[in-house]
Amino acid sequence: MGSNAAAEGRPRGRKRLTNQTPPPSDRTRVKRLHERGRYDRATIDAILDAMPVCHIGYSINGLPYATPTLQWREGDHVYWHGSSASGMLRAIDGALVCLTVTILDGFVVARSAFHHSLNYRSVMLFGRAEKVRDDAAKLQHLERLIEGLFPGRWQTLRPVNAKELKATAVFALPIDEASAKVRTGGPKDDEADYALPIWAGVVPVRLQLLPPEDDPRNLPDVSVPADVGALKIG
Amino acid sequence: MGSNAAAEGRPRGRKRLTNQTPPPSDRTRVKRLHERGRYDRATIDAILDAMPVCHIGYSINGLPYATPTLQWREGDHVYWHGSSASGMLRAIDGALVCLTVTILDGFVVARSAFHHSLNYRSVMLFGRAEKVRDDAAKLQHLERLIEGLFPGRWQTLRPVNAKELKATAVFALPIDEASAKVRTGGPKDDEADYALPIWAGVVPVRLQLLPPEDDPRNLPDVSVPADVGALKIG
């Protein structure tokens, strides 16, 4: 339990990414081997792209919040959206936030309580939330959200109207201060404990998409389109 | 997209729970029907018990964080743990935190982009993180963590030693300022859009436990115990 997500998910210093794939440095390499830390954009992007649910850490009047929402990546930015009337979204316009994505991959079962752990992939991004103020840009981002989940669906939908666009706020965060933490593999027990007749191993966890369920008001000839079948997660 | 987790996961006012199952009030009932808000302990506890991964929102020197960790409930408190040497855990001792648990249950696919949504269950707890300072109490809480996941496993393990106990910090948060948000069911489209030949429905999501994988150093006669088989999630 010493090697848990609380200890490992915390960034050890906020590292500013200067380009998409920084050359491996001694510091990066040591962290990768010994501390589960990853700072390469390929790892960070893969985790962001695999899990649309994130938690945003922010403060309002000194009170901390961790609020779940949907995130999607476009190049070097991550976006999220919500109601324009949301007090939370009004409060974080221009404010410092921490956007965290976590994917649980398994329970690590050890021979002592202390070495039980989790396998997981997580990313923490830090920066200022920037509201997207241009309507055309906002609409394009919403299209990317839909297309990222359901490729090809946007053009099949009833178009977004002006009222809906006004009611929706979109926020951006640059991916330039980021860290990933990844744990994989089995337990790491104390050497003496391997002689004990205690089962150890991993119980893998995955997010599973179940077959789509029709809305009862679908028209008779309408069947599940390819865009919905293309949804992936995890 | 208007009815999304960003808008819905945010507590509309922090409600202090005065007992385990407050009598339904007009305010509670209206929120339940119209805003996905739930304030009853049965709903809150069921969500906390179904998902050990949480995100803790906190601030260090005015910078917000949302850090993933493992939580477990014992009665009217939620607990988490980590390394005693963790700067994060030292920083939040006595500090205000927000502990959020989120379970993704499905993608809600609508006839317009605006009405796409997510099905989910989430809980947000607010309060001051209290460090458990008594060693005997700390050990008991760690036992509950293991037993909560793997009932019966604690007594089969190599016992926790003094060094491990010292290296582990345990924190508590009372469940007395809490809200849950739950969305279920299919899309709620604009009435006119139901005439459109666009597929709508839900793609359910669930967390799946895969068969346990043996550690390669397990002794020959050791097989998966009942405690590991009893693990449940989601």
UniProtKB/TrEMBL annotation, chains A, B:
Q: Where is this region: Disordered?
A: 1-29
User: What top-level branch of life does the organism fall under?
Assistant: Bacteria
Q: So where does this one cross the membrane?
A: none
Pfam families this protein is in? Pyridox_ox_2
Q: Which Gene3D superfamilies match?
A: Electron Transport, Fmn-binding Protein, Chain A
Q: What is this protein called?
A: Flavin-nucleotide-binding protein
